[in-house]
Amino acid sequence: MSMHKKQRRNKPVSWRARLIAAAVIAVCVLVFLLARFAGVRKEKAQVDKGVKYLAKIDSEEALKKSENKIKQQRQDAISKLLDKESSGDGEGFDPWGYFNDSVIMGDSRAVGFYLFDYLPQSRVIAAAGNTIQTIEDSIDTLNSINPSYVFLCYGLNDVTSGRWTSADEWIKEYAANLDKLQSMFPKTVFCVNSILPVTDAALATSDRVKLVPEYANALRKYCEENNITYVDCDNLPKNHPDEYEADGIHFKKTFYPYWAAEMIVTAYVGDDDDVSSGSAEDGSEN
């Protein structure tokens, strides 16, 4: 008998075992790839979010710079208008000449434009107690003038009259009046003045006067949402508190050039060079 040990022979691996092993490896690779892909997507999402955030910041900063630039240009133009008007060295410059082809419509506050001899009465369709409901009464007069610009100065009497139960209801009627005016005078630019604030002296006279800010905000919002030229005069009384009369509602004569300058610059937006250089086209009544 041979003393040699019998060598063991490895059993061949079955095709089933190989298939299972391959499947396990494939699953592991797939899990790895999915995890990696999910990680990449997450990283990409974070990067995209960061990029959008930076873009938003850049956009907001650019918008803020643009708004500040426009405000500064407006303020510079207003300052030049007022300086030339008050100094008398404007080489014949007359800021009120910008109203040669314009009409101011409104209440007793607007009356001051002709009462203090800044504008001819034919250019100011205003009276004490007027509200937006009196606009229709002035259409014939407006039609005879056919101006290029109309500045609307309503709001205080509307608030204190109590004819409207809410600011929204008032805005609807104001909008209806504006629509009618714009349809009748399609070539005319209608500029809506903000409701000028009142002082504590006026607030003490009536509870409804306290609603002025609510109506004023509603008017601003409506104009902004409907692309209506809005003359923002809210800061004028704040910057010139001594210009109020004792009643806290009306203004002294020296206030009106400031108000007029705001109207001019707003109406001529985009033509700041013409405004600041003191050129105004002579208008004629049609």
Characterise the protein shown here.
The protein is an alpha/beta fold. It has 2 domains: 17-92; 94-277, Rossmann fold, CATH 3.40.50. 53% of the residues lie in helices and 7% in strands. It has helices at 15-87, 108-115, 139-145, 156-161, 167-184, 200-203, 212-225, 235-239, 256-267, 272-277, and strands at 102-106, 124-126, 149-153, 189-193, 229-231. The chain has a 5-stranded parallel beta sheet with strand order 2-1-3-4-5, with helices on both faces. Helix 1 crosses helix 9 (256-267) and helix 5 (167-184) crosses helix 7 (212-225). The N and C termini lie far apart (139 Å). Mean pLDDT is 79; it is low at 1-7, 88-93 and 281-286.
In short:
The protein is of the alpha/beta class. 53% of the residues lie in helices and 7% in strands.
Keywords:
single chain; 286 residues; alpha/beta; Rossmann fold; five-stranded parallel beta sheet; 10 helices; 7% strand; disordered C terminus
Largest pleated sheet: 5 strands, parallel
* Overall 3D shape: elongated
CATH topology of the largest domain: Rossmann fold
Kindly name the structural category.
alpha/beta
**Counted beta strands:** 5
- Uncertain runs: 1-7, 88-93, 281-286
User: What's the Cα radius of gyration?
Assistant: 36 Å
Helix content percent band? 40-55%
Strand proportion, as a percent range, falls in 5-15%
Number of domains: 2
Which architecture of the largest domain does the CATH hierarchy give at level 2?
3-Layer(aba) Sandwich
How do the strands of the widest beta sheet line up side by side? 2-1-3-4-5
The average pLDDT is 79
Determine and state the CATH class of the largest domain: Alpha Beta
